[in-house]
UniProtKB/TrEMBL annotation:
It is found in: Peroxisome. This is Acyl-coenzyme A oxidase. PANTHER family: ELECTRON TRANSPORT OXIDOREDUCTASE (PTHR10909), PEROXISOMAL ACYL-COENZYME A OXIDASE 1 (PTHR10909:SF250). It comes from Branchiostoma floridae (Florida lancelet). GO terms for biological process: fatty acid beta-oxidation. FAD binds at residues 140, 179.
Length: 660
């Protein structure tokens, strides 16, 4: 153990294990999580050359091989619970990245379970669950992502043959981006516009075989392939897909909620959640995974070592640790606090999600609008903050942060797409805003609201008399965030009304007020995160020391947002200039108190080196010798003289020397 890092850990004011248990559901679940992750990390079958040293083709082949091994070994080990499989797969084997089977498990299987009839499940689900077929979910098109109603792929019913005819009428209608599609899948759930007798009934899901089960070649009329290199996810075969008069049986339309009868009749049940529940799960998963890359463990561990570990200044005094600089703390500590805030928000979101799914399973879909609004807002907010945090951590590591050895470039490439996949963030925020506008109007009509929008009931946001508050008081902070959210919702509603009064129709008025609507949705989501963080501090699982350090993180998270968004709180006089100045002073004081606990707080995320996959973030802190060893392993260093020297550089140098 590096002595500087050991000193950091020995000086912590709390036992990290207490917070580990708090974050992951208690000692038993923590033990099980570590046991399952170790099964993967210690398995020699999953050891291979650093992916950064591989070509894209090699990465895909390696990740495909690992995906197959995961399926086989999970069966051998008896890992059947979603939690065990998630820890083994994403934490242990793929280190939170997605392999070539990612869309099979995250979208294809859930859609079959949720959208297929009992007869259809009997036909396809067992094969899919046992990997006799591999599927993906083909919705996004080259020209249409979030705008589902604009999808161009068509499925036209032919009553003579009782078949659907699939076509891609335009280049922009090409399915584009689905993971596992390029080279892996032989089936897909296809979202296509349903046409019956020339009339469109909107997008519907269809089960479509796209490759032969004998030789894996594309079936007649199907054009499918890989979309090429991307910013990240080199081991995943995101693909494109086109259809030219491909016929599928009528029974291949997933018909749990709507169906086409053989005699041309279209039937739709009252209960029509379509694929929304699947996307709700993905939004919830996005909120859960957002803190992972944002946890600045790489930056904090390297900074605590403080440059050349054994270096001394000219006066022979030890070099100061980089993390002792307040500017470095101001870069990192707010994102450390945010990582905790979003992790706790995710835990609450998971609870709400599964409770809501039970109600939906009983036929009660009234919970869907709020669940969708909350998950959309949190997914957007958390991924926005995550993206900014990754870049801040990279810069905080200096030049080393630019190296793949730090792990940060891979984190950045693998996680920044969260701002656009499973719903583009701004569009999702506007969906949250739509729910807020509806709820706000209901409150004006005297309806009592509940859940995450209860604070809008009867609220007419007015400035409180300007007075200095104790902005360290969590109740004061919660009230401030609640007031901001309520005021911005109120003002967005007024702006929307004003736009309508100018003669604009609803879509144009909505577009004109969109900036105010997004701001209101973001404030609503931020209020939920702050309130949830504070509420979770009352958990009896926390001892006094752990509660004290988490309270400081909660205060820092809230105060940092207040200072950065001070205009929102000053605009109507709710907070005063004195309040904001007080908040700035408290931020500095909180960072000073958190400084001795910084490394222990990162340790409490319980990421072993095998998951973190960062030389700078090594638990033992022995960075520099391992950094040199990693560089030596580069393929460019396999020989002292690269073959290109003989092909290009040697003739060039010799020719130039001959001229002298």
């Amino acid at each position: 153990m590096n002595p500087d890092l050991k000193k950091e850990r020995d000086g912590a004011s709390f036992d990290p294990e207490k917070i580990v248990n708090f974050l992951y559901g208690g000692p038993d679940r923590v033990r099980r999580r570590r046991e399952v992750v170790s099964l993967a990390l210690d398995d020699p079958d999953f050891q291979h050359e650093d992916l950064n040293f591989m070509s894209r083709e090699q990465q895909y082949e390696t990740q495909l091989k690992k995906s197959i091994l995961v399926v086989q070994k999970q069966k051998e080990l008896g890992l059947v619970s979603p939690e065990d499989m998630g820890n083994y797969n994403y934490n242990g084997v793929f280190k939170s990245m997605s392999g070539p089977f990612g869309l099979h498990t995250s979208m294809f299987l859930p859609t079959l379970r949720g959208q297929a009839t009992a007869e259809q499940k009997a036909k396809w689900l067992k094969m899919a669950e046992n990997y006799a077929i591999i599927g993906t979910y083909a919705q996004t098109e080259m020209g249409h992502g979030t705008f589902l109603r604009g999808l161009e792929t068509t499925s036209t019913y032919d009553p003579q043959t009782q078949e659907f005819v699939l076509n891609t009428p335009t280049p922009t209608g090409t399915k584009w981006w689905p993971g596992c599609l390029g080279k892996t899948s032989n089936y897909c759930v296809l979202m296509a516009q349903l046409y019956i007798h020339g009339k469109s009934y909107g997008p519907h899901p269809f089960m479509v075989q796209i490759r032969s089960l004998q030789d894996h070649k594309p079936l007649p009329g199907v054009t499918v392939g890989d979309i090429g290199p991307k910013f990240g996810y080199a081991g995943n075969d995101n693909g494109f897909l086109r259809f030219d008069n491909v016929r599928i049986p009528r029974d291949n339309m997933l018909m749990k909620y709507s169906r086409v009868m053989s005699f041309f009749c279209y039937l739709k049940t009252v209960l029509t959640p379509t694929t929304e529940s699947v996307f709700l799960y993905l939004h919830m998963y996005s909120v859960e995974t957002a803190p992972r890359p944002g946890r600045p463990s790489c930056a904090i561990d390297e900074a605590s070592v403080g440059g050349p570990t054994w270096g001394v200044l000219q006066n022979r005094q030890p070099e100061p640790q980089v993390l002792d600089y307040v500017t470095q703390q101001y870069k990192l500590f707010p994102y450390l606090a945010a990582a905790y805030a979003f992790m706790l928000a995710a835990r609450s979101m998971i609870f709400v999600y599964f409770r809501s799914m039970e109600k939906i399973g009983r036929g009660d879909i009234t919970v869907l609008p709020e669940l969708h609004a909350l998950s959309s807002g949190l997914k957007s907010l958390s991924s926005w903050v995550m993206n900014a945090g990754i870049e801040e951590c990279r810069m905080a590591c200096g030049g080393h942060g630019y190296s793949h050895a730090s792990g940060i470039p891979s984190i950045y490439m693998e996680h920044t797409p969260a701002a656009t996949y499973e719903g583009e963030n701004t569009v999702l925020m506007l969906q949250t805003a739509r729910y807020l506008m509806k709820s706000y109007n209901q409150s004006l009509q005297g309806e009592k609201l509940a859940g995450s929008v209860a604070y809008l009931s009867g609220v007419q946001p007015v400035p409180a008399a300007g007075r200095t508050r104790n902005v360290l008081d969590l109740n004061v902070l919660i009230q401030a965030f609640q007031h901001r959210a309520a005021r911005l919702v109120h003002e967005a509603a007024l702006q929307l009304k004003k736009e309508r009064q100018t003669g604009k129709d609803q879509p144009d008025a909505w577009n004109a007020a969109a900036v105010d609507l997004v701001k209101a949705a973001k404030a609503h989501s931020q209020y939920f995160v702050v309130k949830n963080f504070a509420d979770r501090l009352t958990d009896p699982a926390l001892d006094s020391a752990a509660r004290a350090v988490l309270t400081r993180l909660c205060q820092l998270y809230a105060l940092h947002d207040i200072v950065n968004s001070s205009g929102d709180f000053l605009e109507d006089g709710y907070l005063t200039g004195a309040d904001i100045r007080q908040a700035r002073r408290h931020i500095n004081a909180l960072m000073a108190k958190l400084r001795p606990d910084a490394v222990a707080l990162v340790d409490a995320f319980d990421f072993p080196d095998g998951i973190l996959n960062s030389i700078l973030g090594r638990y033992d802190g022995n960075v520099y010798q391992h950094l040199l060893e990693w560089a030596k392993a580069s393929p460019l260093n396999k020989t002292d003289v690269h073959e290109s020297y003989y092909k290009y550089l040697k003739p060039f140098l010799e020719a130039n020397r001959a001229k002298l």
